[in-house]
Amino acid sequence: MRALRADGAGGVKVLAAQLGVSEATIRRDLEQLHEQGRLTRVYGGALAVDGGDEPFSEVSAVRADEKDKIARHAASLVSDGQSVLLDIGTTALRLAYHLHGRSLTVVTSNLAVLEELQNDEQIELIILGGFVRRSYRSLVGYLTEESLRQIHVDWLFLGTSGVRPDGRVMDSTMIEVPVKRAMIKAADRVVLLADATKFPGHGVAKVCEPSELSMVVTEPGADEATRAQLVEAGVQVVLA
């Protein structure tokens, strides 16, 4: 359940590899958890149920080293004086940590990023308005989207539930998708931050086509065929 909440969705093969068990075991467990109402079973895997738990706090330590390497590389892309838009998620939080002390403008809907950077006087911090999703520590809704229509930034660092084999970026938290799409429109360069478990990944709603990405920062072990589709679409794929 922690793995599903971290990613929003999970495929049988990915979950089996993550947990070190057989695919048959994963299928049985998913069926049982589906019957208990703790997840939604879909073809090839399962979706997390958006309930009242606190997924952000639970998943912050999941694959922490991998996320930190990705975040550190992402931070190295940004030059002083530039503007940065940070999506929700724990990788974006790690990226914020690596921006400390830099002369930057940071815009975000991520309340954890707010807490991380609020006392850093070198950073000009802009918080988007909106409805507070406490469990995901994010801001969503019309006010968030309208705020994004009023700004433009140099960099967007985007999260995802998964990247389809054809390179499409997906998300399972459907209320966040309109915000992500508005973020893409507000940025000169769009960088997707995704560890190897997201390749290929699952999601019920399309965030964007691969052609809308400038770069993907991932790690060794990310599915080669999916990476090749991204490169074919003109996306720079970097292994942190």
From TrEMBL:
Keyword match DNA-binding: yes
Xref: InterPro entries: Carb_Metab_HTH_regulators, DeoR-like_C, DeoR_HTH, NagB/RpiA_transferase-like, WH_DNA-bd_sf
Signal peptide: none
SUPFAM superfamilies (alphabetical): NagB/RpiA/CoA transferase-like, Winged helix' DNA-binding domain
Transmembrane regions: none
A Pfam family: HTH_DeoR
UniProtKB keywords: DNA-binding, Repressor, Transcription, Transcription regulation
Span of domain HTH deoR-type: 1-48
UniProt keyword annotation of DNA-binding present: yes
PROSITE patterns cross-referenced by the UniProt entry: HTH_DEOR_2 (PS51000)
GO molecular function: DNA binding
UniProt-listed PANTHER family: GLYCEROL-3-PHOSPHATE REGULON REPRESSOR, HTH-TYPE TRANSCRIPTIONAL REGULATOR SRLR-RELATED
Role, per record: Repressor of the lactose catabolism operon. Galactose-6-phosphate is the inducer.
Name of the featured protein: Lactose phosphotransferase system repressor
Biological source species: Kribbella alba
Upper classification of the organism: Bacteria, Bacillati, Actinomycetota, Actinomycetes, Propionibacteriales
